[in-house]
Amino acid sequence: MRNIAYLMLVICMLTPFAGFSQQILHGNIKNQLTQEPATAISIRVKDDRAGTFTDDKGNFQLRFSKAFPVTLLISAIGYEKQEIVVQNSQQALQIQLNPASTMAEEVVISASRSVQTKLSSPVTIEQISAKEVQNSPQINYMDMVQGLRGVDVTVSSLGFTSVTTRGFNTSGNTNFTQIVDGMDNQAPGLNFPLGSVIGLSQLDVDNIELLSGASSALYGSRGLNGTMVMTGKDPFKYKGLSVLVTQGVNHINNKKNNDPVSSSPVYDWAIRYANAINDKFAYKINAQYTQAKDWVANDTQNKNGPGGPDVDPNYNGINMYGGATSTDINPFLYAAMMGNQDLAPLIEPLLAKPNYVARTGYPEYGYLDNNANIFKVNAELRYRFTSNLEAIASGTFGTGNIVYTNDTRYQINDFKVGQYRLELKSDDWFVRTYTTRENSGNTLIAGPTAQLINEAWKVSYDGQVGGWYPEYTEAFIGALATGSNQQQAHLLARQFADQGRLVEGSAEFNELKKQISQTPISEGGTLFLDRSKLYNTEFQYNFRNLIPFLDVIAGLNWRLYNLDSKNTLFPDKEKPIRVNEYSGYLSLGKRLLEDRLTLNTSFRLDKNTLFGDPKLTSRASAVLQTAVQNYLRFSYQNAYSFPSNIQALQNTMNGYNSFSSGGSNLLLNDHYHFNEFPPYTLASVQEFQNTNDPSVLKKFVYDDIKPQTVNSFELGYAALIAKRVMVDVLGYYSTWENFIGYANVANSPGTDDVNAFKDQSKYMVYNIAFNGGETVNTYGYAASVRVDLGKNFTGKVNYYSDFLKNKNNSQINNFNTPNYHVNMEFGNSGFGKKQVWSFNTTLRYKPGYHYAVAGGLGEGEVPASTVIDAQISYKILKARSGIRIGGTNITNKYYSTGIANPRIGAMYYISYAYNIF
Predict the structure, then answer these.
(1) Other CB atoms closer than 10 Å to residue 860's CB: what's the count?
(2) Are 847 and 864 in contact (CB under 8 A)?
(3) CA distances (Å), origin 8, targets 3, 5, 15, 247
(4) pTM score, two decimals?
(5) How far is CA 755 from the centre of its chain?
(6) pLDDT tens by residue, 819-857
(7) For tag attachment on the chain, is the N or C end more exposed, with fewer CB atoms within 10 Å?
């Protein structure tokens, strides 16, 4: 009996292995026209889960347990699908695929968190594929985003681009969500997306999808202005070594364009290596380094009124730093007159109105370091437990030096950001956890640092008889007494008071700048010490196998912001501030009328511990197929944004008696004591100083800041005509409530006597985030046409518009968007013998528009711009390489994307690419 038992045990152990004895197929797939290896081609066994992909040489090895004969399903976007019956595994397969148009095959996921064709998407969605990245004339995929329909950008520097859709454009847009491989790509403390700083490397982009407008119902808070979902390449699918080396030059013909930087080299190097060791384990490593002389912001427009530095003694240029220190010199004039009555006829007429004088500012070039560099590295491990269950571990780290525009310009030196993920996923569910950690490094805040530099080399006023302003006043009176007119006297007075002024770029200047900028804000310097962290865990389940008659997707999300600025950004002197968010979402879809009508609705409930009530958002959509490849869509979307951590909690001194502030009552009452010493609008305080009439003072009415919301309706139509022409048109209308903007206010802590506003040293100025009381409406329309012209020629054109109604004049609402954009593209992905040549050209046109920067950094008209980019490439087939020559803004007509941002000229480059064409 024991022997029989042993025999039964052996049979039971061997039976699974006998039933799953594996077959192995080898083969190679090529492009039939060019005979190039066809990479990342899917090879699957029909009616079986077994599958694999070709490597970078077109080779594949497929393991499966099904008995011969088997049918192989071979497919990839850009090629005709094939089915091949294989009788045995004795000989390696040699397969050739015919290229095909991709228009009808494009699929998207982010529109509904499930796979669907782009044509049948319920909302407006734009897409960039890996092939389009390869053929683009731009050297960075973030620059490509500018050409998408509905998209507007603000470029703060070479390494920092902010994206938005449907108006309200600004640097560091907290109302736009950027997701990279399922992770929210926002800075934990500041809450705005980090662009390409820790995004995908240029060689690792598989797909980018961009949803225009409201998207909170699926992706949570801060999705008011859209969501961009970026997906990296799967190492099981995209294997081998890839290299991209770009050498360029910018600041061409700089003197003609009033650019202070001479022609300089640009370096952009990227490398990627991926390998699948077997059917179970794969990994990839990415690295990219970018270095260049950055573009310079040199807008000298006066923020305090008309006239330049030779005309207005109170001149404060937008990109001149230090001039925010401004004082009415009348008390000094009056004191001089009291000391010498003979001066009365000269001085008394001057005292009839205020005489504001600003300290002399420093221009950006020579003050901020324009040596830009970014280094980022990414590694990912994947393990397949089964064909339907996979574990992923990844880490991305970025560091460098760039400049960012907000209420002033920020020189971000030696910043460090890391993002680390663990994920377990199957076809129907996933659980993902990740953390983002930031270190602000030695960030220099341009405006306040320059003000403190001025105070360090010569104090504005020492409280007695010395200082820059008393010297200025003395020289001013002396010049008037010797016959100079007022304008001449002011110029002479400035020259006298500025004696000994430190020259930007000098050793003494740089040492003082370093000392101030590396002393924390809490200790009297300007360094902020942001070491904030974000922790996030998400679970999602697709019920398609459990509820076959209805498309049901549900998910849960938990997020923790651990705000740690050492009392330099937030009131976190004692310990870090912890902000939790809890979310749940549900998406329901149903197909009717023989699948010609698709209805979908989504709901999301979010709770943020900074705010009392949870927030419910929703989306409803209907897509009707009116004919083959013709779809009519309608959607309603409700979106919201909890105030960002900065909008709620910022507590940063940004100049002389001046603060940038969040709008929570925790700050306004507990820290600034607005409930005891009422705030007034800064404009009315300045009017009171001019008129000496207290009746002109207007109290600033405030309340605890609340989430802002938008309700948006969209009607669109998309069609594929004759398999070669894709047309998409749309119109939208949105209503914003509790819109978060900024207001400049003032109060006098310790007294409610309004006369304190006559002396700048006795009152404080705050730039405060708050909810506007008026409803703000936006609307617009758009159209795009893409044409397959045959023989790999394609043409694209899109037009879109955005308009603002009921502008809330009581706050700066930063619409910052032109009324329309026009983008065009024409190119060929392969022509000539064996299709070794390719080219692409793009054109972007924006008319002039008004732009205002939050925090009072500046506002004005951004001139119209026409930007043309172009490239031509040649493949070296035997070396699996390619050479590209191209340029961005090739006409070298400098342009800017916003007030206080840099003016951007041409960059011309040559690239060498290995194993990516």
Answers:
(1) 16
(2) yes
(3) 9, 5, 10, 69
(4) 0.90
(5) 44
(6) 999 999 999 999 988 899 999 999 999 999 999 887 678
(7) N
